[in-house]
């Protein structure tokens, strides 16, 4: 049992408290024993004195010595009717060093006198004054030696220590065993569960089941169970995401080849005799190009994060128009969602055009799907502006707002979806792309009147890129 363990420290504390309790018991008991000892000597001396006073004649010296020895005193003085009378006397071996009046001694004074009597190893003579029993006079004085008193106190103290130590040791052992059973055993059980769980955190059989009787330990077990369930769920989710990532990478590899072929055929549409086809061909080519780039970045996702943005200057209004046209064509109910823009035509932004298109497309698509799910008409507005420090782009909608769970896990994959069957990847990808520009994506508002997101892209990144060109 080591002192740095709970068992060791509990044993040390128990020993300290037992010793402290012994002192609190021993000191008053010794004081009481001394007081009883002196009172018994005065009572014996009073009986011997009354026996002498009962005779009219003087007693022999040997009888007087025998009465004093039986009473355990040297001299006896009685005060009766205001007359002080030396009833029994014998030679005193030394001077009287102290006088104790038992009629006026308090508890603390009695304890202090008891300790002084134990500390003084020399045999001295003291005077003790008290009240006679049965009102047989006004007071009685006796003279005694301190050596017998000290020996009697030591003997009583040793016997008291032996008895109290036995009870204290028994109590300490019972307390120690109770602490082991009620506290240490449940703690060791929690530790064993933690060790077993650490060896295989994905195994749900190692999750602790709270069953402690103590409220505090049960709360600790419940907290541990909640933590283990969360960790196990997160590990399983990460494993599924890793498997999904591998599958997406394989699909993207084949899809890239298919889209590359489609891109070649789309290029030929620009030579079509049909004017409508020639007008639609550039948009189709751009869409396929974005799809090819997306496949390329998906293939790199397992090796690294989103690639660093390739910065270029472009008018933001043109990009927003492309996003709105794509979302208008993708809408399930024509005319249900109205798209608005509030972007100055002269506003030029420096960013990665394809990545920013994906950000706006994800935000607009989420807003459109939320409005369409209500079956009611609504609006989506893309606005923008600039300050000395950054460019800002706001995407506002009049939809039903985000649910509580979506707001809690807003930018976390597979947890922040706003619709049934969604994966929650749109906002995660948008947030990653914006942070790749050194900016941030904030949710400014989300309630019954709609939601409002704001993109901040700092100018510092753009200026640094310009300087490096």
Automatic annotation (TrEMBL):
Catalytic reaction(s) noted: ATP + protein L-histidine = ADP + protein N-phospho-L-histidine
Enzyme class: transferase
Gene3D superfamilies tied to this protein: 1.10.287.130, Histidine kinase-like ATPase, C-terminal domain
Record keyword Transport present: no
EC identifiers of the protein: 2.7.13.3
Keyword terms: Kinase, Membrane, Phosphoprotein, Transferase, Transmembrane, Transmembrane helix
Domain Histidine kinase: 250-461
Domain of life the protein comes from: Bacteria
CDD domains, per database record: HATPase, HisKA
Ranges annotated as spanning the membrane: 12-33, 160-179
Ligase is among the record's keywords: no
Coiled coil: none
A single MF term (Gene Ontology): phosphorelay sensor kinase activity
UniProt xrefs under InterPro entries: HATPase_C_sf, HATPase_dom, His_kinase_dom, HisK_dim/P_dom, HisK_dim/P_sf, Sig_transdc_His_kin-like_C
PANTHER family: SENSOR HISTIDINE KINASE, TWO-COMPONENT SENSOR PPRA
Protein name: histidine kinase
Species the sequence originates in: Paracoccus liaowanqingii
